[in-house]
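To whoever picks this up:

The parser on our side crashed when reading a file containing two proteins. I've narrowed it down to the boundary between the first structure block and the second sequence. Both blocks are reproduced below exactly, byte for byte. First block:
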Amino acid sequence: MADKAYCSRKFLKLIENKGGKPCIPCKKSYKVQWEIDIEQYKKRNVVERFFQRLKENHRIAMRFDKLATRFLAFVHFACILLWLK
């Protein structure tokens, strides 16, 4: 799921080649309009809100950790804290 900024045919093909089903609305300026699952697209905000809450932690938003393993460990820790709330 993504917003209209990612509606290029190249990006849609990439998703389909990886075995996914794209749920990206097309821009109004496109001549050929395609159908999407509106109910599934409405659930996109849940994911966006989760990442916003995760980025409230300054350490994650600014990527202070230089090593990927430490960064990922702190992301896991932050996710656990969000889950406990």
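<<boundary where parser fails>>
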Amino acid sequence: MKKIHIILTLSVLFSFLASCTTDVELYADYKDITVVYGLLNATEDTNYVRINRAFSGSNDNPINANEVALIADSCNYPGKLRAYIVEYKQGYGNTYEPTGDTLLLDTTTLHNKQEGVFYSPDQKVYYTTDKVKFTNNNSHSKYLYKLFIHKGNDTITAKTGIVGGDNFKITTTSLNFRSASSINSGKIKFNPADNAVFYNMEFVFTYHESHNGGPMVDKQVTYSMGSKNVEDLTPENGQYFFTYNENSLFYLLKDAIGADTVYDANHPNVVRSFDVKPIQIKLSAGADELYNYIQVNSQTGFSQTIPDYTNVKGGFGVFSSRINLIKEAGISAGTQVDLYKMPWGFVQQ
């Protein structure tokens, strides 16, 4: 039997998940294996889908997959495959029928990929700018979007619903923190998204910093609340929420600022300030296909015989949907007073 080495490339589209790689080893006669990664986002102007091919070698003629991954021609299919997304709507009997809307995928090259396992900085992807065609499920209608890739006599397919909806919103407008030791937690509330089965949340506090009369420079600290399945979230008046420790902001700033504090209140060497709404709340929601791909495959690590989960028929990878929200929020008056009292040089603007 020939030994085929395959490296799967995880999408560059995974906003809060960034990107990673998956190493796969298969023992079978050689055949062309297609790898697909795409996450549809109804709020984006452009949606990308990665369509790559596997690397191959044999026991008699082994290859170094890490070296081949740096060669664009080894990852990409020559020319352009015929690829498109078809919209389906649920009808009677819970069957889905095509609506007649088809989104053709064209190819383009991204020029800003950072150096890593795969070739850079230019990378070929498939894309569509027809975002208005993506429709969320509602109380009256349900939709699915099916990807078709034609490769010679083979057809690769995958399908997903769209995550989002007009009701998907962060409703918390202000966060409260304490400098004194506290075991209390605050809540960041949001309305659930259609088709979402898991959420990820973090907040970013931005402040401005000047040394010795120099220009103000933006600084940031980030607090992650992690990812949660909807089953792990407690509904509260139709909303979900993540919790944060009330000391978290002061712990983060203490680590970031360290000993770089004001040594003379009349002649400070450091001056800091923050805006009226210095907090950015970042919330991400994902569909079940993406959740299953992350949860199932991560249990066996990045090196495995065959991926335990994929929703791509005729290939490997994942085709799913996610959406990201960012909301600017304020901090309570008590938090501001505590910040001004700390020896960090925070002044009112």
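After patching the parser it read the second block fine. The two ends are 71 Å apart (CA to CA). The chain has a mean pLDDT of 83.
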